[in-house]
Write a structure and sequence with these properties.
15 helices, 2 domains, Glycosyltransferase, Rossmann fold, alpha/beta, about 425 residues, about 35% helix, seven-stranded parallel sheet
């Protein structure tokens, strides 16, 4: 696609407010993409609430259809139906796509499982627009979106949508919720898993390895998640005795393993434990582990200060984390990380080189890694390796937009070729 060729990018996501990692990426990338005069950017969402940064941007056309989030819909029957097939979302997206040229338009879908439903994928396919889906999670193949048994608190090894999978009560809420999710998955598989024409962007090798075996498509492209990093690296972490845990305070995040390991080691070592974050286990853990400091929620600027004064970040998650942003945030401050072996953090952390890796859920193994990190020479070496190899610019939104823009062009170029590889005549 020529440099001066104008293209339209339709970004699709359930929400139009920054409420999580995927939402932030969808919204911020729309803003960055709209800065290029050759890009015509449309943001399509189910959410009636629109973030100020979108609302005030004249370069972006924002279309929100005011369909409530599944969990927030008081009419449960209606929520169940909308979650499987949102007809309103389909109708409204048709209106947008009708006036666009498929030869110069990419529909980039960041998520649909909370409100829009797979109807947005179906209608885009029917109208023959090229599709790029970013795999922010596992909902494209796994009914509960995590390849994780929330009841047993362990990784799930079952084949998605097999009879054993359907019979397994692995959902956070109830088995009824699991059955509903399986019904949604059956409809969704028709348009996502069974399609050979969809392009997928994966944010980590872990997501690729768990998702790709169940997909008919062969078009997978690595697209690292962007993140705003402080680039304020410090080299004095060996002076600290603080071990930091950052994230949602819930069972699957392994925060209790962190609390237990720190509390037991405090009997023989002068160390402190800090938990930054909120979640359903917060009050319980506060009572159970009074020697741990629970900070609660903090903003990005405050969090950077916690990274800068800690000795190490511990990432104790026991679930299939797709691409935890906590790790690059910590490394941008020069902070070594101790991470579990079941997350994509192991694609960034090299055991004994720039951090440490231990078996998920094994508190004794975590204690051993913490004790190893009490050696000042180890922390100093980790910091030097982080400083030599970690580049904040690699994670910037500017770098992301360059990569995703190039990917859009490649997709459009490929779409305009016939099966013999000859260029199609554009009309």
């Amino acid at each position: 696609m020529g440099e001066d060729m104008k293209k339209t990018i339709v970004i699709v996501y359930d929400k139009a407010v920054i409420s999580g990692g995927a939402a932030k990426i969808a919204i911020q990338s729309a803003i960055e993409l709209a800065k290029n005069p050759n890009n015509n950017v449309i943001y399509f969402s189910a959410d009636a609430e629109i973030d100020e940064c979108l609302q005030s941007n004249d370069a972006i056309k924002v279309v929100c259809i005011d369909t409530p989030h599944i969990a927030g819909n008081r009419n449960k029957l209606k929520a169940c139906c909308y979650g499987i097939w949102n007809r309103q979302a389909k109708v409204e997206l048709v209106k947008i796509l009708t006036g666009l040229d498929p030869n110069h338009t990419v529909v980039h879908i960041h998520g649909w499982s909370k409100a829009l439903s797979v109807s947005v994928v179906a209608v885009t396919q029917k109208m023959k627009f090229p599709i790029l889906i970013t795999l922010h999670d596992y909902f494209s193949v796994c009914p509960n979106g995590g390849f994780f048994d929330y009841r047993k608190k362990e990784l799930c090894q079952l084949k998605p949508m097999s009879w054993k999978c359907i019979a397994c009560n692995c959902d956070k809420r109830s088995y009824f919720q699991k059955i509903w999710r399986c019904a949604r998955q059956i409809v969704q598989n028709r348009y996502v898993q069974n399609s050979k024409d969809i392009n997928f962007a994966y944010i980590s090798n872990r997501i690729l390895n768990l998702s790709q075996p169940y997909m008919q498509s062969t078009e997978f492209h690595y697209l690292r998640n962007p993140i705003d990093l402080s680039d304020q690296m410090v080299m004095t972490h060996h002076c600290s005795n603080i071990f930091l845990c950052v994230g949602r305070v819930s069972e699957e995040k392994g925060v209790e393993d962190f609390c237990k390991a720190i509390t037991e080691l405090q009997k023989c070592a002068d160390i402190r434990g800090q938990v930054v974050g909120v979640g359903p286990l917060l009050d319980t853990l506060k009572q159970r582990y009074p020697q741990i400091e629970f900070v609660g929620w903090v903003n990005s600027a405050q969090l950077t200060k916690y990274y800068q004064v800690a000795r190490a970040l511990i990432f104790p998650s026991i679930c299939n984390e797709g691409s935890p942003l906590t790790i690059p945030e910590a490394m941008s401050a020069g902070l070594p990380c101790i991470v579990t072996d079941c997350t994509s953090a192991t694609e960034t952390i090299r055991d004994g080189v720039n951090g440490l890796i231990y078996e998920a859920g094994n508190v004794e193994a975590l204690k051993q890694k913490i004790q190893a990190s009490l050696e000042d020479t180890s922390i100093d070496q980790f910091q030097r390796n982080i400083k030599d190899s970690f580049k904040c610019a690699d994670y910037s939104y500017a770098a992301y937009v360059v990569r995703v823009n190039r990917l859009y062009d490649d997709i459009l170029r490929k779409e305009r070729k016939d099966e013999k590889g000859n260029q199609k005549v554009l009309t």
